[in-house]
Amino acid sequence: MRLLITGGAGHVGSPISRKFAANGWDVHVIGIDPDCALPGVSYTQCDILDYEALRAHVEGCDAIVHLAAIPSTRTHPNATLFDINVAGAYNVFEAAACAGVKRIAQASSINALGGFWGCDDRQYEYFPLDEEHPLHTTDAYSFSKQLVEEVAAYYWRRSAISSVSFRLPAVWSDEMIQQRRLRESLAQSRQQLEDFRHLPSSERQARLTAARQRALSLRARRIMEYDAIQSGASAAEMPADDWLFDMYFFDRFNYWTFIHTDDSTAAFERAITADYEGAHALFVNSDRNILAYDSEALLSLFFPDARGRRRRLAGAESLVSIENARRLIGFEPRVRSIL
Question: Tens digit of pLDDT for each residue in 113-149?
């Protein structure tokens, strides 16, 4: 099998490239770096916005994994981010259509829901979240991921390209977990939560209200976007060492999800080899939350207005359902917990 992987030398892409090469597949990677060495893989520098150059790399491929993108609002102006992420995805699918490629697996994001990078207080209708939940994007990155899913759906209608757009959460390798001392940090967060839950209700609510007001004020000013980063406003105004603010501002919009690199790699492999048709957006993540903490307790603290339940969450069950990925491609996370 001949495969093209865009962005195949990055954090998510490198283990995919290695695994596909180990399968005995003919793997070609393109990226923006001038030089890159990956065992068993050929590499060429290519900008996905250069359609003619991209099309030449697509010719003769059986399938494509599309990972090349700007991964946040922090590093590029919104117009640049949008162009690379959306026009880049369009180019990949258009080149595939012209070359007769009928299978693409691409990286969308859990942020296609809206929330983490957004400028308002995202509301949710129910938990666990699934692919039927309405999207509400208010930042260029999340909007771009919403649209790459639409690009995939368009090319199913137009050219019968079957595809999966994975709504990936944070992707953790063993090396990253150790370097960032993630287990110690998560254990500390668990204890802070447990202590917080035993405070008097009035004190607990007052502190949550203060965290919410501060978070919404900063979000309204688009504090995580490129312009704020460049001006220094983001670093100057984000509070330091405030675990409750961090959990309210950041963690709750990740829904305490994660996926190990081994499992993200397995998901992309299944997306290439499984028997399905159509264009599908799929959540893939661990089936437990990253804190290994009671999920209903997390919801009661940080999403008290989201009372709808597709089903009651048992124990530390993930707030994001992976049932559709299980059914469509046989995805099953092997790394269920970091703690």
Answer: 999 999 999 899 999 999 999 999 999 999 999 999 9
Strands 42-45 and 171-172: unpaired
The tokens for 209 are 């209200």
DSSP secondary structure, 134-175, as one string: PP---SHHHHHHHHHHHHHHHHHHHH--EEEEEE---EE-HH
- The candidate with the shortest Cα–Cα distance to 20, out of 67, 90, 53, is 67
Q: What is the overall mean pLDDT for the chain?
A: 96
**CA 217, CA 44: separation in Å to the nearest integer?**
45
Q: What is the 3-state secondary structure (H, E, C) of 243-283?
A: HHHHHHHCHHHCCCCCEEHHHHHHHHHHHHHCCCCCEEEEE
What would you report as the CA-atom Rg of the chain, rounded to the nearest whole angstrom?
A: 20
Q: How far apart are CA 5 and CA 20, in angstroms?
A: 10
Of 67, 59, 1, the closest CA to residue 268 belongs to 67
pLDDT digits (tens, 9 = 90+) for 14-62: 999 999 999 999 999 999 998 888 889 999 999 999 999 999 999 999 9
From residue 20, alpha-carbon distances to 25, 248, 266 in Å are: 6, 39, 10
Q: What is the pTM of this model?
A: 0.96
Pairing of strands 26-31, 2-6: parallel
Domains of the chain listed by start with CATH number: 2-173+257-329 (3.40.50.720)
Q: Which amino acid, 132? A: E
C-alpha to C-alpha distance for 126 and 261, rounded to whole angstroms:
28
What's the rounded Cα separation, in Å, for the pair 265 and 13?
Answer: 8
- Evaluate whether 170 touches 259 at the Cβ level (below 8 Å): yes
Report the C-alpha gap between 135 and 137 in whole angstroms.
6
Q: Are 71 and 86 a contacting pair, CB within 8 Å?
A: no
Contact 126, 310 (CB under 8 A): yes
In one-letter notation, the amino acid at residue 240 is A
